[in-house]
UniProtKB/TrEMBL annotation, chains A, B:
Enzyme class label: oxidoreductase
PANTHER family registered for this protein in UniProt: ACYL-COA DEHYDROGENASE (PTHR42803), BROAD-SPECIFICITY LINEAR ACYL-COA DEHYDROGENASE FADE5 (PTHR42803:SF1)
Listed name of the protein: 3-methylmercaptopropionyl-CoA dehydrogenase
Highest taxon above the source species: Bacteria
Catalysis: reaction(s): 3-(methylsulfanyl)propanoyl-CoA + oxidized [electron-transfer flavoprotein] + H(+) = 3-(methylsulfanyl)acryloyl-CoA + reduced [electron-transfer flavoprotein]
Organism this protein belongs to: Phenylobacterium glaciei
Length: 580, 580
């Protein structure tokens, strides 16, 4: 199955979430034609260089032997081509060698990278996080010697957070950082689940590591962020001896076999502090937020790939009398087509949410107007957990629907549909589980400014609902969006009024409700943007908005009831009563 | 992770779906104590003999070499123990050596078999289908020589339906049956996806094969059902030479690796007709309906296993400050507990639907009153596609939620949660995809007797809703069930009024709606049955009914809108517009 870069959909999605306005204000050298050219070139690269390696990455995977990790077959060469093509440096600051494009465009490119080969995409994705952390909090030396190498992609980056006892709860991090008496530190400890923690695809690997000093306060306020490179770097930037750190093993995982997930052993590794002592968690969140949005994009990407494969299969496979296909292709069966359109509608909604968050991050960083920056920053913070969790849940759902469309062949590994179902499953877990995202949403994000951030969003969505209700062919979308926004407002009021276990037990349905409604809004905006156009692609966008409104938005009022249930029953039931 | 047979839940579920009344009427020798004793003994067997093999079945799987299949390590010995324990013969007719228990009790036992080891359970499950087909349509010779061996389990059975071009569309079956001039036939052709098509766990394998005579009419009306045994059987029942059939290969699958999925090659195999010439599809549906219900039970089973593992993990794993657990066990986190209770509520609802269908099948077969038999038969027919599709979708959902509760460890194969996620994925596909079930529901089942079968069900559900609404603590369950039943009635009216593509494009949401509402009804009945009981297990059943009503039933009215959307948008969108 070949991958076809969804360039037209991506360019259109960018436009409808404010990318043009962003460019006009902050990127005078960037125009729509350039955006399209970048997307097309990136699309061609992912189609020809990355997609063909995806299956081999799955079947052969990365290998661990004698303390070293070898990337999956072809991955190292593809990575070199990726770096040589300048794809790693797209959105980075030109000061460090980046191309200075918008972060949103970088995200769109990364969607294609992940769709073509998610296991591969993780390597530059992690590097991206390291770039953002060092650009914001790095020392002069780190910015001079390390950052440009990360921006170019000659070196790669990792995030070393998790330890066996410290997963969602980073307060439990135990890796020690001992001052070496020369201004540096020595790290001792074990990290797990370190994505691309070791490999042979680049000259050096820059590990950003959470650890605590011997005299640090307990809990999250005693954790600092360190940089430890696989090979030491002298003051001229030359590579020296190997550092005292190594991969201890790689995990045997359900999916993304092409991405080595390492146990990393720090055995007195030389390290430098990044940012302030004991403020590592805050610095880490810079990486983490970027990574969360990227993981959301992975959800979209794997869904897109699964959708493409299912669509191609449905056009080829003939079974029975299909109402809408004279040749009997199962694409002509109403139930199959319903499934495909729902997959596509979910993908477009999730894509728009992720790219919108990307644009908001750009505006928050670059808008001239300070108030506009603040507004964008708040909404980006609100959207980030939704982009991560809602999109990755959709990745799993759509990959599962893709398997289903294949019938029996979907369960056979050679078909490839099953790989997407396996690969997709990690995205709701890593970079903060979707449960953690939901808790972040109800605990920190929805309550921002006393709910005013959600209120402002709701007001905009009401406006769109009005516009839809007045547009022939989109009236039902408008009515259902209106009802959905009202349901979200009720649920938000309840969440703000109910702290603690009540709100926490409603967190997951609240996040789903928010994603469902915001996704419906995005599809409504897309349909409005194409009113009057009569080509089949434009008509399909209106159809997708209607399908989504009937199949998903219509359930928003019911979902809100689930949010507002309260914790009583959950609190009361013992594990014993459930058979535990 | 050990498996704990959910004996108490199963016994209770049986009671609330009319098993006691069934026993009183048609099984005078069977009482509640015996039921419990059977469940306990079966539970002990599955816990000690089958569950420990489940992981090895996954990691090592069945093997193919030199035209022969070897069962996964330990499976053949476990199968011998299964047969020796009499577990294969539970519900079969004593005339053929069965124990004559209710089919519903047999299903409950099979739930534990599948939960402990789904790949293993497929072997006796397929035998069960062959038993039912031969008991109804077999010749005297088949009933004398073959049926008792299948009932005891000494020989196993298979269903040979699918061919590369004939999956959901059996009209395309091309395997040839040529008369041998001696009253028998010779089969020529290739079948695929044949579960336990070859193995070394039993002395003989009885293949029930769809094929067509050279002069048969085209389409489904030219297909006949044949019996071809792996080894020939003489008139005294002795095993003779190998037949001219063999496994050509086994598939490399996403899950159920312990179940060999064979390509079967019929190379002039000797075969006997089963039932009438050219009526094979109808005879096959006897097997198929039994298998569909069993597959629904597999959905429940894998969900139960995944739930147990997640619950055990949540009690052990400590992360952060848990609102409801002083020791920090993640079972004390509201979001985790919500997830676990929702898993459990779905399991209990699906279990009740499957066991209810089992009881209805028994009543349809055995009730003294002819009218009662007819009523039960119609409802069993209505329930069968729901039991199959809704329960297996829940199997996938719950297995996925189980992975999620494990966090990063869920993605590591050694943990075992991922196996359930992989194993569960086949159940929505085989024995008629869930799309086919939905089409069966809207096309044949809901329209039975002009909708009167659904009407009668709705009337009963309204009664239960009334009872719930008048019961302290269950009022909200009653109100939501009432609204859910009304939504199902609206959707049913629409389905009956809209044939063709409109109804077909609403089929999948209609089935989900029906399952959601009937499942809510079942949980409501369970809660009503325990009113007044104060132990924590009884209290948990009321809590599960409330949780389910808030999280699932509340969405029924919105889901009904999705059913009644119509086919317009689906019909209009070309594959090209979607990027195909």
């Amino acid at each position: 199955m070949t991958f076809r870069a969804p360039v037209r959909d991506l360019a259109f999605a960018l436009k409808t979430v404010g990318h043009s306005a962003l460019m006009a204000q902050a990127f005078p050298d960037l125009d729509e034609d350039t955006v399209l050219a970048v997307l097309e070139a990136a699309g061609a690269f992912t189609e020809s260089e990355l997609a063909p390696l995806n299956r081999k990455g799955d079947t052969e995977g990365a290998k661990y032997a004698n303390g070293k990790v070898t990337a999956a077959p072809g991955f190292a060469a593809a990575y070199q081509a990726f770096v040589a093509g300048g794809w790693n440096a797209l959105s980075s600051d030109p000061e460090y060698g980046g191309q200075g494009l918008t972060g949103a465009l970088g995200l769109a490119v990364f969607e294609m990278v992940h769709a073509s080969n998610m296991a591969f995409g993780l390597c530059p994705m992690l590097t991206q996080g390291a770039i953002e952390a060092l650009a914001l909090h790095g020392t002069e030396r780190q910015k001079r010697l390390v950052l440009p190498k990360l921006v170019s992609g000659e070196w790669t980056g990792t995030m070393n957070l998790t330890e066996p006892q410290a997963g969602s709860d980073l307060a439990a991090v135990a890796t020690r950082a001992e001052p070496d008496g020369k201004g540096g530190y020595r790290l001792h400890g074990q990290k797990i689940y370190i994505t691309w923690g070791d490999h042979d695809a680049a000259d050096n690997i820059c590990h950003l590591v959470l650890a605590r000093l011997p005299d640090a306060p307990p809990g999250v306020k005693g954790i600092s962020l360190f940089l430890a490179t696989k090979r030491l770097v002298d003051d001229a930037g030359n590579l020296g001896d190997p550092n005292d750190l190594r991969a201890g093993s790689i995990e045997h995982k359900l999916g993304i076999h092409g991405s080595p997930t390492c146990v990393m052993l720090f055995e007195g590794a030389q390290a430098e502090l990044v940012g302030e002592l004991n403020n590592g968690i805050a610095h880490m969140f810079v990486m983490m937020n970027a990574a969360r949005l990227q993981v959301g994009v992975q959800g979209v990407a794997i869904a897109e790939r699964a959708f493409q494969q299912a669509l191609a299969f449905a056009q080829e496979r003939k079974q029975g009398r299909a109402a809408w296909a004279p040749d009997g292709a199962i694409y002509g069966h109403p139930d199959v087509r319903r499934s495909l359109l729902l997959m596509k509608a979910k993908i477009e909604a999730a894509r728009a949410i992720c790219l919108s968050t990307g644009v908001l991050n750009d505006v928050a960083r670059l808008a001239v107007d300070e108030a506009a920056r603040a507004v964008a920053k708040a909404r980006a913070e609100l959207f980030t957990p939704i982009a991560k969790a809602w999109s990755t849940d959709i990745g799993v759902e759509v990959a599962s629907m893709g398997v289903q469309i294949h019938g029996g062949m979907g369960f056979i590994e050679e078909t490839g549909a099953a790989q997407h179902y396996r690969d997709a499953r990690i995205a709701p877990i890593y970079e903060g589980t979707n449960g953690i995202q939901a808790i972040d949403l109800v605990g920190r994000k929805a309550p921002m400014e006393n709910g005013a951030v959600v209120d402002a969003l709701a007001a905009e969505m009401h406006e769109t609902a009005n516009a839809l209700s007045g547009t022939p062919g989109l009236e039902t979308v408008g009515a259902r969006l209106e009802a959905g926004v009202a349901a979200l407002e009720r649920a938000t009021d309840w969440i703000l009024a109910n702290k603690g276990p009540n709100a926490l037990s409603g967190a997951t349905p609240y996040l789903k409700l928010a994603g469902d409604v915001v996704g419906g809004w995005m599809l409504g905006l897309q349909a409005l943007a194409l009113v009057g156009a009569t080509d089949d692609w434009s008509a399909s966008k209106a159809a997708l908005a209607r399908v989504y409104s009937a199949q998903i938005l219509a359930q928003a009022p019911g979902l809100a009831e689930g949010v507002m249930e309260g914790a009583g029953d959950y609190e009361a039931v013992s594990a014993h009563a459930l058979g535990g």
